[in-house]
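Case study 2.
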Amino acid sequence: MKTKPLIVDAHLDLSMNAMEWNRDLRWSVGEIRESEKTMSDKPDRGNSTVSFEALRKGNIGLVVGTQIARFSTETKSMPGASWNSQEQAWAQTQGQLAWYRAMEEDGHLIQITNLNELDAHLTAWEKDPENRPIGLIRSLEGADSIISFEHLQRAYDGGLRAVGPAHYGPGVYAQGTDATGGLGQKGRNLLREMERLNIILDASHLCDDSFRVAMAHFSGPV
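Prediction:
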């Protein structure tokens, strides 16, 4: 019998779905949608697209799972995931991290932090995908929650392996979707620290100006 190819999903907002949308991803997609039928607090209620069951059905054995929390002083900031201080944003990402760890303890996820762990996971998944946790590589979508580079080091020590310097709009370190402008010195310092730690640069939300500056100043993995 021919085995299905393993699929990698390189971007899933799993923890935000769990913590901000209050979705239990151990339920089926149908059950999540049914539970939201009468809700109107968010624009996409009842339209959930992901669950652990759905990932397994698609043989998605490895995901890049995000943590996300923006710092914004704009009164019309994009709704959801925006906070009034970097400290609040950091605390929000730590709540999301706690959820990832709870899902590891419950057997649904296994964190991948290095090549040896990745190789071991892929081998185990190929042998028994039905009983293997889904591999998780953690990424920070928008770096506003990084209060200091000590916080970045702490996040790396806890397993963070990719960082997007900005998300939507203006950011602490870079400019994101629908914004303009380069990185500035703080952004370049962030890239230098990421390089030192061998953290992957997620450039997907950088505006064109910040993207060009990042490519000119970052020599690590992109």
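The chain has eight helices and eight strands.
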